[in-house]
Amino acid sequence: MTKSYEKLLASCQSLSEQLYLPMPTLKTASQKAESIQIGMNTGSNILGGDSEEFGGGGKWEDEEERRFFEEIPDLKDYVPRSVLGLEGDADEDREDGQEKERKEKERVEEEVRKLEEELAEMKVDEDGRVLPNGKTNGEVADDNVDDVPTPTPGTPKESPTTTPQLAPQGPSQLLTALLARLPDATNRSLIDQAAVDFAFLNSKAARKRLVKFMGQVPKNRSDLLPHYARLVAILNRYMPDVGTEIVAALDDEFRYLQRKKNV
């Protein structure tokens, strides 16, 4: 240790002479210990931030990156709790269903009452035709004659064109469309919306397709990995098998690459 120090000191002295600059004054071991203790008490770096999180080899480059990975939305704020399989909210969902059923029943009764009132104001003649209240057959016939329009020459009307109706999409087609959108979900709002859309399509088969899709990220699209990680973190709270299978798939991939390298 002493020989290494002397060799380093001689090199520094030689460099100082060649540069015509004095050697810097370095702190002793006791001074370094005091400065480390002071730094530990303050808990902040020169820039005034937390030295454990930002800069100096910390986990996050900035505050925005920290919030991206740590501030994860809760799906129950955007999706009905029954969709997420939360048993504690079954009573609340049942009450909502009963309230909707009661309102629908009242609406039907109101329509029936209005229809009965309209029928009570009409009369039916011998031929079974419905007559407005207060008119005879002759008056109705005269009204019908007056209402007949005089024919005028004109161009024939074109028959309305029928537009082709799209076939309804099932869960499988919706999931395929969602997976096709994932490579373009390169910001926080898009990936959060993808998580909400997947929650409505949630099933065991859908989760397996999602895990398989995210395990096949192209090598030139490493920019997708942080967004896929956020998607897994959002879903993992209510679908823990997604995170478990993703970790297992990554572990198998790492072990395969390690064996391939050793061979």
UniProtKB/TrEMBL annotation:
<dbReference type="GO" id="GO:0000184">
    <property type="term" value="P:nuclear-transcribed mRNA catabolic process, nonsense-mediated decay"/>
</dbReference>
<dbReference type="InterPro" id="IPR016024">
    <property type="entry name" value="ARM-type_fold"/>
</dbReference>
<dbReference type="GO" id="GO:0035145">
    <property type="term" value="C:exon-exon junction complex"/>
</dbReference>
<dbReference type="InterPro" id="IPR039762">
    <property type="entry name" value="Nmd2/UPF2"/>
</dbReference>
<protein>
    <submittedName>
        <fullName>N/A</fullName>
    </submittedName>
</protein>
<feature type="compositionally biased region" description="Basic and acidic residues">
    <location>
        <begin position="97"/>
        <end position="129"/>
    </location>
</feature>
<dbReference type="GO" id="GO:0005737">
    <property type="term" value="C:cytoplasm"/>
</dbReference>
<feature type="region of interest" description="Disordered">
    <location>
        <begin position="41"/>
        <end position="64"/>
    </location>
</feature>
<feature type="region of interest" description="Disordered">
    <location>
        <begin position="79"/>
        <end position="169"/>
    </location>
</feature>
<feature type="compositionally biased region" description="Polar residues">
    <location>
        <begin position="158"/>
        <end position="169"/>
    </location>
</feature>
